[in-house]
Amino acid sequence: MQKVSYMGNGETTEFSFTFPYYENTNIIVTKNGATTTGYQIIGTSGGLDADIPYVGGKVVFETAPTVMDSITIARSLPLERVIDYQPTAKIDPTTVNQDMNYMMEILKDMQDQLDTFHTQYAEIADSESAATLLARIDAISEDITSVSAQITGLGDISTLRQSVTDLSTTVGGHTTSIGSLNTLTSGMTDYVIASQSPTADNNYTWYRKYKSGWVEQGGYRVATTNSGEQITLPVEMADAHYLINMTTNNDTSGGTYHYPVWENQTATGFQAELVYQGNWYPGAFYWEVRGKMATE
Question: Is the pTM of this model over 0.85?
Answer without folding.
Answer: no
